[in-house]
Amino acid sequence: MRSLLTSIRHNPKAIAGLFILLVFVVMAAIPNVIVSGDPATDTTQVNLGMSGKHLLGTTAFGQDIWLQIVHGARPALLIAIISGLLATVLSVLVGVSAAYLGGVLDDALNLFTDVVLVLPTLPLVIVIAGYFSQHSITVMIIVLVITGWSYGARQLRSQALSLRNRDFLEAAKVRGERSSYIIVFEMLPNMTSLIVANFLGAALYSILTASGLEFLGLGNTNSYDWGTMLYWAENNSALQTGAYAWAVAPGLCIALLAAAFALLNNAFDEISNPALRPVRRLRVAAS
User: Fold this and answer.
1) CA-CA distance, 39 to 236, in Å (whole number)?
2) Which residues does 102 contact at the CB level (< 8 Å), separation at least 6?
3) What CA–CA distances, in Å, run from 37 to 16, 54, 75?
4) Residue 143 has pLDDT above 90, yes or no
5) What is the C-alpha to C-alpha distance for residues 205 and 148, in angstroms, rounded to an integer?
6) pLDDT band at residue 118 under the 50/70/90 scheme
7) Dihedral in degrees, nearest 10, Cα atoms 261, 269, 185, 83
8) % of the chain with per-residue pLDDT over 90
9) How far is it, in rounded angstroms, from Cα 156 to Cα 113?
10) Domain contains 1
């Protein structure tokens, strides 16, 4: 654990990703401290520009854009983190268990994973999300988990196959340990970096896909998520009417949060795989 923290501290991508993520975590944790008010409040002053009272102006409905941006951080993080965690758990259950147990179970789960992998993800997501009449955050998370676990399962299965016949696992079998014990306490600790990287990749997929669905109107259009803000901005011709902040601000927040997960994902790839680490040139001081 200490070596992992040291590697993170010396990785610029990890530092940048953690800083961006921390900013959004603070926004999600204490939105009313950052800016007070109700994001649904109509100020009766529509399409105002930036000012001291309204930092990013107001929408065509007279609602404060900065207020909606701050309150939109919580649902965005909830969707990304919960969907990422559940998809990673499912990937571990399917990929690692199948690789270790082998036999018919491995063949069946591997075939199921391959089938899910070749399905066209975007049309499938749109169909599943559009089927439900109540577009709650729970439905969104379920849709993202169903469509986002297979790639991670494939990666984890490959890693588990390379570990299956190692000496320390054979020793655990000789001791008479149960398969569940060997998987949880022997295999998974040696796959920590890959599991974390898979979580970050699943979280990245979740935030981008969820925002896309909300932009298409397949989310809860009465909420104040960043994707929903883009939906209303597009429907009210924000760019054509000069309300640039209404369209640009939520899009920028989505891009920054996605960039945070992508930077952390790349950082953990470099930490777990020395071949991916950038080569640092030694500077020899002139004597």
Assistant:
1) 18
2) 164
3) 31, 12, 17
4) no
5) 7
6) confident
7) 20
8) 30
9) 12
10) no
For residue 262, is it within any domain?
yes
Residue 225's domain spans which residues? 75-272
| Residue 203 and residue 261 in contact, taking contact as beta carbons nearer than 8 Å | yes
Q: How far apart are CA 21 and CA 29, in angstroms?
A: 12
The CB density around residue 49, as the number of other CB atoms within 10 Å, is 12
Q: Is 101 exposed, middle or buried (0-12, 13-18, 19+ CB in 10 A)?
A: middle
What CATH number does the domain containing 248 carry? 1.10.3720.10
Residue 263 has which token pair?
């930077």
Total domains in the fold of the chain: 1
Residue 52 lies in a domain: no
User: No. of H helices and E strands in the chain?
Assistant: 14, 0
**How confident is residue 10, by pLDDT bands cut at 50, 70 and 90?**
confident
Indicate the SS3 state at residue 188: helix
CB-count exposure of residue 271 (10 Å: 0-12, 13-18, 19+): buried
Residue 72 near residue 250 (C-beta atoms within 8 A): yes
- For 64, phi then psi, to 5°, come to -70, 125
Q: Which amino acid is at 273?
A: N
CB-based contact 202:148 (threshold 8 Å):
yes
